[in-house]
Design brief:
The protein has about 400 residues and is of the alpha/beta class. It is about 35% helix and about 25% strand. The chain has helices spanning about 15-25, 50-55, 60-65, 90-95, 105-115, 165-170, 235-240, 250-255, 285-290, 295-310, 320-345, 350-365, 370-375, 390-395, and strands at about 5-10, 30, 45, 75, 85-90, 100-105, 120, 125-130, 140-145, 145-150, 155, 175-190, 195-200, 205-210, 215-225, 260-265, 275, 280.
């Protein structure tokens, strides 16, 4: 039997995870990335235990765990610096089987991409699905500037504004603006190393996460009109957060004027009818973009990749495999999208009475012990992949 062929559109976290998992499962994989290179882009990401176990499937989990920096406590604060509650790293690890690991997105991309053959990844290769294919019938067709590619399977990992999703489900309303915009920076870390924290103010928040290399990944978010952009986003951060507790002002001051990323936050609050059509499957933000309030967007993309490959074992009926993938992933991700939206609504509270009530509830949860906060991730961070882990380790001896 000839080797099955898969084409992956997009080289983000979900696309690359799917590509590696399919490659390790016996597929011939081609990854098409429209950007001219995989140069470092983006900022940070936090990988919870569920994503780490998914990465175990392709042999990357321990590489991620070695980048862990969180020791001791972190938690939620007010803009004045008062701790509302504390979250202990050991409690998280005990409950879910591993710590939260913050790292730069480009670091994760490099770790995953290294598991692909050098010939599999094609940059500067914009692509579209001209025919999603039919299981048991015609192959899918992907059109590029260099011609057409046929595939037994197409994996669309082309992001929140996915053109493939729009083509597969033209009547779906697509992503909606949450009302929040975000800023992200990665800057040299201060001494001593800061405790990871998220700080909630009136209609805005800040988070700081130390990285293994000594830098800090920090982010701000605030209610703002959709599409608003300013000439100097660093100055905007100082205006909004410059009088917040240490080390927030110092982190902003350490950013360069062109080192601040700003993006509006959109989510697919209206679930898709399925994550596939024909021989084409959606993964990551293309399938279930969510608010970042639970830190699960990239984590769920990693899960998608390994679950898709699990169902698409060589020789499996592609139609049945993709139906099983949709059936497994759509309910889980839809639940997490809705939960993230609920948390986001609490984060964006701006009236003084609502903020005081929120702080009181969070402080009470803190007094009940770290378990009360940790339990919010039950059913999310305790997920386990369907495959045996470390397939890559077995292949490499």
């Amino acid at each position: 039997m000839s080797q099955p062929r898969a084409v992956v559109i997009g080289s983000g976290i979900g696309g690359l995870t799917a590509a590696v998992a399919l490659h390790q499962g016996g597929w011939h994989v081609t990854v098409l990335e429209r950007a001219p290179s995989l140069d470092p882009v983006g900022a940070g990401i936090g990988l919870a235990a569920n994503a780490q176990r998914a990465l175990d499937v392709i042999g990357v989990g321990d590489d991620v765990r070695r980048l862990s920096t969180w020791q001791g406590t972190g938690g939620l604060r007010t803009p004045s610096g008062r701790w509302l509650n504390r979250l202990d790293s050991a409690a998280v690890a005990r409950r879910f089987g591993g710590p939260m690991v913050p790292l730069h997105r480009s670091t994760l991309i490099d770790l995953i991409a290294a598991r692909l053959p050098a010939t599999a990844l094609h940059t500067d290769s914009a692509a579209r699905v001209s025919d999603p294919g039919a299981p048991g019938g015609r192959p899918a067709v992907v059109t590029t500037a260099d011609g057409e590619l046929t595939a037994d399977l197409v994996v669309a990992a082309d992001g929140i504004h996915s053109a493939v999703r729009s083509a597969l489900f033209p009547h779906h309303p697509g992503p909606r603006y949450t009302g929040f915009t975000t800023w992200r920076i990665v800057v040299p870390g201060p001494e001593p190393v800061i405790q990871p924290h998220e700080t909630w103010g009136a209609g805005q928040l800040w988070g700081s996460q130390p990285l293994k290399d000594g830098r800090v990944y920090a982010y701000g978010a605030a209610t703002a009109p959709e599409g608003q952009r300013l000439k100097d986003e660093r100055a905007e951060l100082l205006r909004r957060f410059g009088d917040w507790h240490d080390p927030v002002p110092a982190l902003i001051a350490a950013a360069t004027s062109n080192g601040v990323l700003r993006h509006d936050v959109h989510h697919l609050i209206d679930p898709l009818p399925a994550f596939h059509r024909g021989r084409t499957a959606l993964v990551g933000d293309a399938a279930h973009a969510m608010a970042p309030s639970l830190g699960q967007g990239g984590n769920q993309a990693v899960e998608d990749g390994v679950v898709l490959a699990h169902h698409c074992a060589p020789g499996a009926d592609v139609g049945a495999a993709l139906a099983a993938y949709s059936a497994e992933r759509l309910p889980r991700t839809s639940t997490i999208v809705r939960k993230a939206a609920r948390v986001f609504r609490v984060q964006e509270l701006s009236s003084a009475p609502a903020v005081r009530l929120r702080e009181g509830v969070l402080a009470l949860a803190g007094r009940l012990g770290p378990g009360a906060v940790v339990r919010a991730f039950d059913g999310i961070a305790d997920w386990r992949p369907p495959q045996h882990t470390y397939a890559g380790r077995a292949q490499n001896g």
